[in-house]
Amino acid sequence: MEDKLLINEVAKLVGISSHTIRYYDKEGLISSSYNDSGYRNFDLSDISKLLNIMILRESGISIKNIKKLIDGYSIEEYQKYLEIAEKVLDNELLKIMNKKKIIGETLDKIKNRKIGFSTEFKEKRCFQLINEIGYEEKINSRLYYNIFLEKKIKNITYKNLIYKLEKNTMKVFIEDDKGDYNLEKGNYLEYNFIVNSEEEIGEHIKKYYKNIEKNNLQTENDIYILIESHSMLITAEGYEIQMFSKIKS
Question: CA 165 to CA 243: how far, in whole Å?
Fold first, then answer.
């Protein structure tokens, strides 16, 4: 009975593809022998080395550094590479946890979605001023890109936009923990609605003012429009906008 294994047998045994084993062979990480038929043979020491390589790769260590370790290494070098790999995995884990948090928060918002008027308690939130524009002005993506560069704002994927409506202009903010503008905590009159275009927002602003007047509500003069990053995904209904102002205590 042949006491050495063929490449497809080794692949099944250790749980990786034959292609990957050939790649490791090509890179000089393993050195297989050949039988009389020209097929690669693997003995127990080859399999042990292959398993060690797989552990190192799963630890995030590069092929280049694995080759250095295989060619001859001290335990200190081995420890150094493992510590670097551990930091890489910690960062990956943190990214995954942040993504999971975002998915969870978005699911909560969808499940608890409210359309119409309600009174909501809001915690303190920080925003950074991006621009101040007139109501007749169109939002210019190039202008905002330059502002983001100037203010060193990166990765806006999950940052929410907020518009503060004033008499003749509106201020545009982006949510930022280090921002210098605070939205104070307290009870707010909140109005959630669906639109298909920016033009429709004006009609909802009028509706918001009418609701305040009709119910004789005492609110602060500042009215905000919030566009959350997840709400910009347009569905068959449109996309969701949130409008609110602080109720006077």
Answer: 10
